[in-house]
Specification:
Chain lengths: ~290, ~375
């Protein structure tokens, strides 16, 4: 009796599996299609695009649109390409990610291992930064940046991003350290380690997965930000997202779609690379928190 | 004066009182075991000694010096945690040497100390491994090594053996005892295993709900429990605690125990203490350990006061070295411990000898010891 029914089960299993794969492949195609269109069209001369077939491969391959998007295209009033704005974004993202990650880790450490009266209230208030609609804070932030003399500068953007990233980084690290055995901290205290020694020697070496998660999260969010970038930047601190918008809107005369496509890919490239390089750890880090806790 | 003194210690978390006026002390080189059921505050007490928890009031002194305000690393103590708390990112050697590294001990000196301790604990071959690559017993040794290398004035152990399997636990217990005899360092040891307490301790403190119930040598705790909680908690199988009445036969006080479907047993208490005479005609709780209730041949011949009476045997449990028999007295199953080869059958009646010199009496209302 059991043998045939097992057979049926196996056959069903194969069928279900095939179905799952077909669906997954369909979804993958669906998601990859826009990227394909962008890449393909960024490598065509403009008249090939005008001829109409967006999905066709280039008849004549060219990297001219990429070079133009990078260094000569008209952005707003000046023909600089995206290069200076890309640099602005890098100068903004790297310190903002570093500051918010380090402070988030310290917050998580204090909130779980050096509990104090009202620590949960403090944590709850920090979480607000995750959920607050940023439009609400635009005007007060502009005022404060003005008072600090940071209005329209890259450090000003760094400050804003670091502050509003803190909610999420604190949340990540707090939840991760919550599952970290407190006895290790006690043992280190008996061994005579100081507050920062415990953090650096005991907690940080075990924080790899959550650091990766936090860095990817922060990097992606800050790099892709448009609202703060367009609100708080001036001519020489414009981040790449805003510059891309200017590129698309400011071309006089013909719309150079191939340059726009190339520019969009350039703007997206860093987040793509960060995700491809460390995405594996990202998933693993999220899992680690989930399973251990 | 004791070496480690705990004076009227109170500890509250918020408004919950966890430790309620604990006072005890242990002499230098002593082995103090804190026992009690789960949640009674043993770990909390140990953590306050270590300085990992601030105390609410009272005083802790080590070698006559008040340490209430001292940081854990300044109290000259070392602690072994229940979960071992080995630093996962460091090798065994680095784990053992971490404290010295923090204190700035030069590397050659550190390495020597690590090597010595590793040899003592037979973990020299493990020094380069990470804790995740060790078995439970090996982790236990490393945790002890990390404590030993400090050469502290007081060792604190929080249930160090509870994560080991039964056999390893007994081996490590012996090893801890041997280490203590060799190093003669004062130890405070938390366990809820009363056998561990009996075998290791020079002094035992029994805690319940944050209140110190009794503090004394293992023999005192075992033979002279101050209340029913201590009597019941220490010893395995537990002491029989039987409802009884104090009666009188002639001028002699007796203890009357009811029996299911039979006349009550009346045991003469010749020369019983005056304390019991106040309870004549009243209910008491009669406490007798299984080994004080045996077959007549197995009874202690030196005991001053033996009484033999026939009992109905309900269950017989051979346990290899002994045979346990259960009879019904005062409405409760009472365990007697007989010789392994005692001839006894369930359902039959057999003579049992009560060693009344070892019997204890409690007040059923207050649960306190009467005699
Ligand atoms: N940080 C804390 N905040 C509030 N209550 C606590 C805290 N730590 C411990 N307690 C409470 O104090 C009581 C004693 O805890 P403790 O850990 O000392 O028990 P224990 O005797 O060691 O028990 P076990 O044998 O289970 O380890 C428990 O009721 C516990 O809930
Ligand atoms: Mg405990």
């Amino acid at each position: 009796m059991s043998a045939p029914s097992q057979d049926v089960a196996t056959r069903n299993g194969v069928f279900v599996r095939a179905l799952v794969y077909v669906l997954l492949i369909l979804f993958a195609v669906y998601y990859l299609l826009p990227l394909y269109v962008m890449v393909v069209n960024s490598l065509k001369p403009l008249d090939e695009i005008r001829q109409g077939n967006m999905l066709a491969l280039p008849q004549q391959w060219t990297i001219a649109p990429w070079l133009s998007a990078w260094s000569t295209a008209q952005i707003g009033v000046s023909p600089t390409g995206l290069k200076p704005y890309f640099l602005n974004s890098v100068l903004m993202v790297v310190p903002a990610v570093a500051i918010s990650t380090v402070l988030g880790a310290l917050n998580g450490y204090v909130l779980t291992k050096w509990r104090f009266k009202g620590d949960n209230i403090v944590f709850g208030m920090m979480l607000l930064a995750c959920f607050i609609p940023f439009q609400i804070v635009l005007i007060p932030s502009a005022r404060i940046l003005g008072l600090l003399g940071l209005a329209g500068t890259v450090p000003g953007l760094v400050l804003i991003h670091a502050i509003y990233g803190l909610g999420f980084t604190t949340l990540f690290f707090r939840n991760y350290y919550e599952a970290f055995p407190t006895e290790l901290v006690k043992a280190a205290q008996i061994d005579g380690a100081s507050f920062f020694q415990i953090f650096r020697r005991i907690l940080l070496p075990s924080s790899g997965p959550i650091i990766v998660v936090t860095v990817i999260w922060q990097f992606t969010n800050i790099w892709n930000d448009f609202l703060f970038g367009s609100s708080f930047s001036s001519v020489d601190s414009i981040p790449i997202t805003v510059a891309l918008n200017n590129l698309v809107n400011s071309s006089t005369g013909v719309k150079e779609y191939n340059v726009h496509f190339a520019g969009a890919i350039l703007a997206a490239l860093p987040t793509l690379i960060v995700y491809i390089v460390s995405g594996r750890y990202f998933v693993r880090g999220l899992m680690a928190g989930a399973v251990k806790g | 004066m004791s070496f480690l003194e705990i004076d009227n210690l109170e500890k509250s978390f918020g408004t919950t009182r966890i430790l309620k006026g604990v006072t005890l002390g242990i002499e230098e080189g002593g082995f103090l075991v804190l026992v009690g059921p789960s949640g009674c505050g043993k770990s909390t007490l140990l953590n306050t000694i270590a300085g990992l928890e601030q105390i609410t009031s009272g005083e802790i002194r080590i070698a006559g010096k008040r340490v209430n305000e001292l940081h854990p690393s300044k109290r000259d103590i070392a602690m072994v945690f229940q979960s071992y708390a080995l630093y996962p990112n460091m090798t065994v050697g680095e784990n053992i040497g971490f404290g010295m590294e923090i204190r700035g001990v030069p590397k050659p000196e550190r390495d020597k100390a690590i090597a010595d301790v590793a040899q003592l604990l037979q973990i020299s071959h493990l020094l380069d491994r990470k804790p995740s690559q060790l078995s439970g017993g090996q982790r236990q040794r490393v945790a002890m090594g990390r404590a030993l290398v400090r050469k502290p004035q007081v060792f604190l152990f929080d249930e160090p053996l509870s994560n080991l399997d039964a056999k390893l636990r007994i081996d490590m217990r012996t090893e801890i005892k041997r280490l203590h005899q060799r190093m003669k360092t004062t130890i405070v040891y938390v366990t809820h295993d009363q056998i561990e307490a009996m075998t290791l301790a020079t002094k035992i403190a029994v805690l319940k709900d944050g209140v110190l119930q009794q503090f004394g040598t293992p023999a005192e705790i075992y033979n002279n429990p101050v209340n029913m909680f201590v009597a019941d908690f220490m010893g395995s199988p537990a002491m029989n605690l039987v409802p009884a009445t104090i009666g009188q036969s002639g001028s002699e006080a007796t203890v009357e125990l009811t029996r299911a479907g039979s006349t009550p047993v009346s045991l003469a208490l010749n020369g019983a203490s005056n304390a019991l005479s106040a309870y004549r005609g009243k209910e008491v709780v009669f406490g007798i350990r299984p080994e004080a209730l045996t077959d007549p041949d197995g009874a202690d011949r030196n005991a001053k006061h033996l009484v033999t009476t026939d009992c109905h045997i309900e269950v017989v449990e051979p346990a290899g070295s002994d045979t346990f028999a259960v009879t019904n007295l005062g409405g409760k199953g009472v365990v007697a411990r007989l010789r392994a080869d005692a001839h006894i059958k369930p359902g039959a009646t057999a003579p049992l000898t009560f060693n009344l010199t070892k019997a204890v009496f409690f007040d059923p209302a207050t649960q306190e010891r009467i005699a």
